[in-house]
Specification:
22% strand, alpha/beta, six-stranded parallel β-sheet, five-stranded mixed β-barrel, 435 residues, 18 strands, single chain
Length: 435
């Protein structure tokens, strides 16, 4: 039995795909281990959103190759898919695979073991490619399962390499989703998070929408919560929101990727909405989900972002009153339109703008947390790794803690009502409510 180690970089979709690959290896009799030092096989699932992400992958690859000169090392994921020719020059990897045909990875590894000649297996995406149905139904020790239901992107934002690394939009057939979710529920997992590269485009080729996927998961016995991953704003219609609003298991947390609160900058990014359209969507969501959380990502320092553009973005973020914001600096990504744009912003200015934006959005986050004090919320308690508190998440994904002295028994994977007594910047503290 060969020991197999997986190292994953990047987003939740990558982590889900790693779990699927682990499952494929396990079914063939391979032993999955948590440390690379005794591995016979190493699979590195790469991310290529940023150049710094590439560097982390290369550093890890060289380190593992030096430590394990006789191991079989497979480099897979977004970097080989987006930069196939360059990846072929990385001699530390015995096997190079992209994001396509993940279901064949065990066969490819076994081909190399039988005949140890370097394998490069990167296939281009085509416009009519179907969704590759690899699934994962075992989430050991987890109370929450991320389930990928969509892949690819058609948007071609000017800063983003992902359409080249993932191909065009395609969706998991809904009957496959149903079967996967049923198996996850049978394993005791109570919450499902629907994820994808461009999740809001789910089901388009089948005449379905994301609301269909939500409804399907909400019907499954054992699943108590259904949550959405990151969303692009332009596909969320009123009819979808109305259908989700009547689902009692649906968690009202919407991570709507903004990127900038300035319409001029959004146009330069090739985003498909204006700041005004984004605000209008937030208003519609809040009308249908009064207790919802709106979270987002905001980029600062995009090429040719003027001081006035940045000031508009800051004021827009304040106006929306997000419950949480991930602020990040624009990072040049070779192969994208934005990398070739004039008026690149200096790192110093990017850093200054990051601090200004971060301070601006912290206030709304603190205000949102404070608004929860006095309310009762249902909390799904998770793995216990704190001596002083039990902790879990409310439907809006607020982190909730209760002192262990108020409840000494284990609460893991249980849902309890908690009354919130006080708030901190990134969590709330409460006490269990007797029913």
């Amino acid at each position: 039995m060969k020991n197999t180690f997986f190292l994953t970089f990047g987003c939740k979709v990558n982590y889900y795909e790693t779990e699927c690959m682990k499952s494929l290896f396990s079914k063939r009799g391979y032993n999955i281990i948590g440390e690379y030092k005794s591995a016979d096989i190493v699979v590195i699932n790469s991310c290529t959103v940023t150049a710094s992400g590439d560097s982390r992958v290369f550093t890890a690859l060289k380190k593992i190759r030096k430590a394990l000169p006789k191991a079989v090392i497979a480099l897979t994921g977004c970097y080989p898919q987006a930069f196939a020719e360059e990846t072929e020059k990385i001699m530390e990897a015995d096997i190079i695979m992209g994001t396509k045909y993940r279901s064949r990875i065990v066969d490819v590894v076994e081909d190399f073991i039988c005949k140890p000649q370097r394998i490069v297996f990167v296939s281009d995406y085509k416009s009519d490619d179907e969704y590759e149905c690899i699934t994962c139904t075992e989430f050991k020790d987890n109370t929450r399962a991320f389930v990928k239901i969509q892949d690819g992107c058609n948007q071609f934002c000017s800063y983003c390499i992902i359409p080249y690394a993932r191909g065009r939009c395609r969706s998991k057939p809904i009957d496959v989703l149903r079967e996967e979710a049923e198996k996850i529920a049978s394993g005791g997992v109570k919450e499902i998070v629907l994820s994808g590269i461009n999740l809001a485009f789910y089901g388009k080729e089948y005449g379905l929408t994301l609301a269909d996927a939500v409804e399907e998961c909400c019907r499954i016995d054992g699943i108590k919560r259904v949550r959405l991953g990151s969303l692009e704003p332009e596909m969320m219609s009123d009819s979808q929101l109305e259908r989700m609003a009547v689902q009692k298991k649906f968690c009202p947390q919407f991570h709507l990727s903004l990127q900038s609160g300035c319409t001029r900058t959004l146009k330069a990014m090739n985003r498909k909405y204006t700041a005004e359209e984004y605000e209008e969507l937030v208003t519609r969501i809040r009308n249908k989900f009064p207790q919802c959380a709106i979270t987002t990502d905001i980029m600062v320092g995009f090429p040719d972002e003027t001081d006035e553009d940045f000031a508009q973005s800051v004021e827009f973020a304040k106006k929306i009153r997000f419950s949480k914001v991930h602020v990040f600096r624009y990072s040049r990504r070779r192969g994208t339109v934005a990398d070739r744009m004039k008026n690149q912003i200096s790192e110093q200015v990017k850093s200054e703008r990051w601090h200004i934006m971060n301070e601006a959005v912290k206030k709304s986050q603190a205000e949102y947390m404070k608004s929860l004090v006095g309310k009762e919320v249902e909390v799904l308690f998770e793995r216990e790794n704190c001596i002083e508190f039990h902790q879990g998440h409310a439907p809006d994904y607020t982190l909730i803690k209760i002192p262990r002295k108020n409840c000494k028994k284990s609460l893991r994977n249980e849902i309890f009502c908690v009354k919130i007594k006080e708030s901190d910047f990134d969590c709330c503290i409460g006490e269990p409510v007797e029913r």
